[in-house]
Amino acid sequence: MPSPPGSLASTGRGPTEGEALRRWSAAGSSLTLMRDLDAEVRGNGGVDLSFNWYRAEELLSGELHGHLLASVMADARSLSMQTGLAPADAAEVMRRAVCDGTVAAEDPIQFRNLLKFALYGVREKLTAEAELGEVMRRHPAFRDFPVQEAWRFCMDHDRWHEPGGADGLRFDNEAGYMGAMLRGLKQVLEDDLNHKGRVPTAAEFEELHDTAVAGVFTRHFPQGLKGDGPVTAAVVDALTAPRANYQQATIEAEEILRRRLPDQLSHFETGFRGVQGAHYELKPGWNLSKDGLAELQHAERNFKGWARMLTPGSGYARLASQWAEQSPLQWVCDFKTSTECKALADKVLRSHAKAMRGERSDDGKLRRIAETCRTLEQAHFFNDGNARTVGFLLLNRLLLGAGMSPALMSNPNQFDGFSVGELVQSIRQGQEKFARYAGALQS
Description:
Layout (H helix, E strand, L loop, with lengths): L14 H13 L1 H15 L9 H8 L2 H21 L3 H13 L9 H28 L40 H18 L7 H12 L19 H8 L5 H12 L18 E7 L7 H13 L4 E4 L18 E8 L1 H20 L4 H18 L6 H16 L18 H23 L1
Antiparallel strand pairs: 1-3, 2-3
């Protein structure tokens, strides 16, 4: 019997596995892509990836980065078919082969580290997908929705058709993103099954965030790979190994490095932000609308002592007389302790629960849900991962709790600065997309 996804038993490689690895080493699409990149770097005046990593970063940004992740996924599936291993186990076999020098031993360290993080992201996504599938089959709203498509709940729609998008890996420049988000979705469904109709507490909201960022690297890889210096192969080996506790990976890596990990190799912080401020940009048309700006000015008064709106580089907000001329603004949240964050989150969620008990129409329920999610997003309770937690996960927890259809949200950042009416429209469109998409997948 094969081992569970992501927890390959250490039994050594059989002939089939070894041959599959040799084929991958010789002609795998991910290795070919990386070696073509190496050749292009050399052809543009660089010695190799080690000495001209700025050029490599440029080439690996955007769509080419998506191509890399898609090719790693394709190679993992190919090795899975050849060996009979589960795809997640195949990705782990490949990662180990890079770690022990069976594959890519002669390639630059940045090359090998990049592959390890890519394989880490693929393994985490596939492992979480298998875990989520078991819960989806028990949930009436999700049992007919293919788990292989669940990533659509966790990615902006404009990225679905980009390279890497069809595998749900477009955002895995933060390695581990999709794996953590699928585990977050699993928690949403489990909580709904166990506590049907109950609005989550502040502690459960915090737990949902922590699940959604667990094991996710803050590095926007491949940034940070240039001049890896002390970031030795052994450090990356430790960071990308399968873990029940991601913090243990950091402990082991720091023991190898004999100092704290550099910021670009750290995991996202968990818990409410403590004695720290937060800010984000409001871009007209993307996460700020004309009607949303008017409502945001009102919210600014409600958030007095907590948050305010500014024009970058100034102490106040410059509002254009014509919307077409409005420049980006900045929403700035003041320094707060984790206790203060938890207290406000608790207040918002309790108020939501009370208001929902008085709502009878779907329109009224949707407006309450949209308003609550927008308030939680604008309060920016966490150092990072706010939009994904609120706009993808908590939103669907509240919808399911209200007995409503889940939604495939197109852009969770709309909760930054769109109006409640516009958000309700986006949620309805997301619900319609869920119904259409689920029906198309079933037919």
